Amino acid sequence: MAEANRKGSNIRQAVDFGALVAFMAAYAVNRFARGLDGQEALLQATWVLIGASAIALIVGYVVERRLAPLPLLTGGFALIFGVLTLVFHDPNLLKIKLSIQNGLLAAVLLGSLPLGKYPFKYLLGEAIKITDRGWRGLTLRYGLYFAAVCIVNEIIWRTQSDDTWVAFRGGLWIASAAFGIWQVFFIMKHLIKDEEPEPVSPDTGL
Fold it and tell me: What is the mean pLDDT of residues 99-111?
């Protein structure tokens, strides 16, 4: 079962990465090959975002036989804000989506700590099994991470060009992967069972 869960997680993360690459490639083609400005290039790439997000949700369900809470949340946000971006012809909605999504996660995770509740335990599903002390520490770490992403995204999309924001979005996936790997060392200290934890990236899609 553990091996099956690990395989499913790897496949889902590969699909998520592929979706991000497709989005960035679509932006690059429209921006530099077709000569569109940043706003129009983002609008065209949003079509790819919507399709890739839908595919990621479908693949996640087929592989894991369920819709994991965190990918469902981020995939749902991508679909909703992607559609809103096209309907209102405003790519800023796509940029704001990243702030709202991460800000909401940060508020829920950090707000749960004084109550002694750990919603992150539910969000991760069966990915890891650690002590309550471990869940508290992990909840704090990921809550601060999501808050930092929200703040940095707000600064970048409001002050920098579309090209810079898209580059930031790509770099964020790498940073998220590195952050997930870093947390493995913390998780190993609080494992309940003698299992080898998989890195859990906080970036589960566009």
Answer: 94
